[in-house]
User: Fold 2-polyprenyl-6-methoxyphenol hydroxylase from Lentzea waywayandensis.
Amino acid sequence: MKAIVVGGGIGGLAAAVSLRRVGWEVVVHERAAAFGEIGAGVGVMPNALRALEWMGVADEVRRLGTPRVSGGVRAVDGRWLVHLPDVGQEKVIAMHRADLHGVLLRALPSEILFTDTEVTSADDLDADLVVAADGINSRLRAELLPDAPGPVYAGATAWRGVAPGPCDLPLSQTLGPGGEAGVLPLGDGRVCWYVATVAPAQADLDPVSLFAGWHDPLPELIASTADVIRHDIYQLPLLPTFVKGRVALLGDAAHAMTPYLGQGACMALEDAVTLASVDGDLARYDAVRRPRTRSVWKGSLMAGRFGIEVRSPIALALRNFAFRALPSSLAVRGMTRFTAWEVPAMPR
Ligand SMILES: Cc1cc2nc3c(=O)[nH]c(=O)nc-3n(C[C@H](O)[C@H](O)[C@H](O)COP(=O)(O)OP(=O)(O)OC[C@H]3O[C@@H](n4cnc5c(N)ncnc54)[C@H](O)[C@@H]3O)c2cc1C
Assistant:
């Protein structure tokens, strides 16, 4: 059985690794001139690590990343709103996105990887299975589901980067009025950070001045980053199906979500393993993946409602009070609600 994977991001490469593992012949077509990922961090959540384990690359991921427990959620002045205990939490692997992408790339033979090949139609592809992993603006999705709405602006813009910084910083999220920030220390003297603010798309904003009053070391991390990456945040309205004929949508092409749970790439890894597990039964893939990703997509939307979108001083004070009152066991349970996924046991 032959599969063609369109798109060589984390989702496409994970699909290629997973399908090869169950005996498929696979080629990957990437439209860019080289395979690569942007310079920012990714938190490999426990659910994603289980998918990588199934793919046989988790040891390499653990070697290149740093296992961390989440410190919790902070206020703009640095005080903890939710301070999570070190015990009872599963670890998140903090790593550079390029390293995660590199692990997947090295798990594939170079002769199946093609760059500079933009795929514009699934009809042209001679394969038993086509995996559309061509990102949020997927051309294949537009061809297969012409009536489905495209990506919608989620009302916020984000900046991301990697800067020199202390190794002992806690992995944390900070919530302020109409904004949020996160730090993901890599443990090697580099800290991945992101900040986001509620704003119109393409607003002309400077993150250095926007986040100047936030707790240390956020202002310094932003100011000392050579290459700051800017993204307006878009999400894809829920699709009626992830499959059509022999084509399966995967990753952001199927369910691009807001980044507030840090689960977008993790979902693409889950998709990949599930697609391989069902061994060509695309109806089953659709039946398993749509409810799961819908729940995380909605969870991320809610995390935004109670996080970045809270702006008025009264709402902010109420939200912060509720967070402080939350028992840590409940906070940990709130996190594991999304990360407790296991590789589905499917008949081969
Ligand atoms: C600000 C922000 C922060 C985030 N933080 C996190 C996080 O901490 N954790 C997390 O899990 N996720 C996070 N995400 C989400 C994550 O980045 C995405 O969900 C993930 O990268 C999607 O991977 P993908 O392979 O599906 O798509 P992409 O990474 O978009 O890859 C698509 C690939 O397909 C190629 N391509 C496109 N069209 C064609 C074509 N026609 N022919 C051939 N190739 C094509 C592209 O060049 C690209 O290489 C974040 C996203 C944002 C915006």
